[in-house]
Design brief:
With 145 residues, the protein is mostly helical. The protein has four helices and no strands. This is 3-oxo-5-alpha-steroid 4-dehydrogenase C-terminal domain-containing protein.
């Protein structure tokens, strides 16, 4: 818990300092507009996936602990829709910031940290939910991984 607090505090400091440095220097270019759109797309799907997973927790009994997420949002293609949404969100943020090092580093760290979790969750779903393979979902990158 202390490590998470330390990381979040330091990352918040880095992102805030970077945004202060960029103030007035980042123009509304096609790259920043695309970054904003990608960030909002990722944020929407991240929240939608989290809501979907929380609603499964409320409706399933302890005897039926593992239930396949319904075909909603990015869950149509991947098991880790919440992870994919977050990776897309922070990648868009890095674009929005014009490729500034702290934003790119955070997007990369996010992908490298939660990507393997998505692969593990997908393998767990395939092992514990009957017929999950038949849904044709991949772990985190649609149609690839």
């Amino acid at each position: 818990m202390a490590l998470a607090f330390t990381f979040c505090s330091y990352n918040g400091f880095l992102q805030g300092t970077m945004l202060k440095e960029l103030e007035g220097r980042v123009a509304w270019s096609p790259l920043t507009i695309a970054g904003l759109g990608i960030m909002l797309f990722g944020a929407y799907h991240n929240v939608l996936a989290d809501y979907t997973l929380r609603s499964l927790r409320r409706t399933s009994s302890s005897a039926q602990r593992y239930v396949a997420p319904p075909n909603v949002g990015l869950f149509t293609w991947v098991s880790g829709a919440n992870f994919l949404g977050e990776i897309v969100e922070w990648s868009g943020y890095a674009m929005l910031c014009g490729g500034a090092l702290p934003a790119v580093a955070f997007a990369a760290f996010t992908a490298l940290n939660i990507g393997p979790r998505a692969v593990h969750h997908h393998a767990d779903y395939c092992k514990k939910i009957d017929g999950y393979d038949a849904l044709g979902r991949t772990a985190i990158i649609p149609f690839l991984l």
